[in-house]
Amino acid sequence: MSDWDFSPPPESELQDREVLLEGTHLVGKRIALLVTGSIAAIKAPLIARSLRRQGADVVAFASSEALRYTTVDALEWSTTNAVVTQLTAAAEHLSDDNPFAAYVVAPATYNTINKLRHGIADGVVTSSVASAIGRMERGKTQVLIAPTMHGSLHNSLLRSSLRHLQTMGVKIIPPKVAYGKNNLPPEAEIVTQVIRAVSNSPLKNVPILVTGGATPVPIDNVRILTNRFTGKLSGCIAEELYYRGAEVKLIRGQGSYNPPSYLPHLLINNYDEYLQAVIEELSKNNYQFAIFSAAVADYQLKQVFPGKIPSGGALQSIDLIPTAKVIAEVREKFPNLGMVTFKYQENITHEELIKIAHQRLQQGYQMVVANRGEEQGKNSEQVAYLVTKNNPPQKAIGKEKIAVAISDFITVRN
């Protein structure tokens, strides 16, 4: 028996084909979505709407084979633009009057990929991409393809074509490999790669290290001391920097946040691993900036108990000693590294928080992101203040906006 009482849904300000913006990375960008004859074409309308949620204006180009699996109506509804299904005297494949920032072939079949590699332009999709490659070679657009086919079609011919296209400058979106097939990746991953491709941020190709999550310390072989921080903010920061084209590496401690597969990251299990990973990563790579949002353990046991302490009250007390301050060691070992650090406090005033942040700035950090447990947004969002030496503290509400503000600061400093 259903629990639904048959009440109508509440009214929404969004019109039928409108989407709720999740970001602005593609605002003002025209994106051509080129759909080829794979069963995965049924997902093309979802890709179109995901692109629009970042502000893109999407136009679909569909081959006749693609329309076996999706429809003109579905593509037009999801893009809010007329669908290009054939080339006319308007020369739709050239798009001279209103050029595209990127062309995304998703799904890209075996047949289409090999045609593109050999310059065959015999239909709506292949002719449009042929023109797009010419624009790409002049620095006027980006071309991305998402290979999608059964594993038996992943042969030496396909690999040769993919390598050749990549050498030319075409960006290959890695498939989601499962059950012997190259499947279309999730819509969010495709959109992320488009955002990254069209980014003209000064952070493009800049190496940046981000840390986040908790760094537990052991009590015995079973029990740990940790904290409640999830690592979500570090994920928002790393993803925002990745959108902008930075070469990001996330060192992730314990927490509920799981980074997307495309984001380079390293999972650490405890404080000792964290300290070692940070120093090693900074030593072997020429990072220009590091953002330390990890909730690093302040104390560790004077002596870790061997094995498992018996239950029933055997553990009466533990002796704690301070851990080494990771950011202080980093500051000493890497004096030219741009550093953003974090300071969390409770049971103090706003003025005291800002004073503590300014005191930390004197230790050689470029920014301190400070927040209090008592201060939250109207929807319980995290509220933080970005404190620097030469400007008033900047207030940011919500993890996404904090991530954007930090990224903007690094952009200016770069």
Describe what this molecule looks like in 3D.
The protein is of the alpha/beta class and 414 residues long. It has two domains: 30-198, Rossmann fold (3-Layer(aba) Sandwich); 207-413, CoaB-like (Rossmann fold, 3-Layer(aba) Sandwich), CATH 3.40.50. 30% of the residues lie in helices and 22% in strands. It contains eleven helices and 22 strands. The protein has an eight-stranded mixed beta sheet with strand order 14-13-9-15-19-20-21-22, with helices on both faces.
Termini Cα gap: 61 Å
Give start-end ranges of low-pLDDT stretches: none
Under CATH, the topology of the largest domain is which? Rossmann fold
| Largest sheet properties | 8 strands, mixed
Radius of gyration: 25 Å
Helical proportion, percent range:
25-40%
Number of strands: 22
Structural class: alpha/beta
Number of helices: 11
Strand order of the largest sheet: 14-13-9-15-19-20-21-22
Note the overall shape.
elongated
Report the CATH C-level class of the largest domain: Alpha Beta
* CATH architecture field of the largest domain: 3-Layer(aba) Sandwich
Function: Catalyzes two steps in the biosynthesis of coenzyme A. In the first step cysteine is conjugated to 4'-phosphopantothenate to form 4-phosphopantothenoylcysteine, in the latter compound is decarboxylated to form 4'-phosphopantotheine.
Pfam families: DFP (PF04127), Flavoprotein (PF02441)
EC number: 4.1.1.36, 6.3.2.5
Domain DNA/pantothenate metabolism flavoprotein C-terminal: 204-410
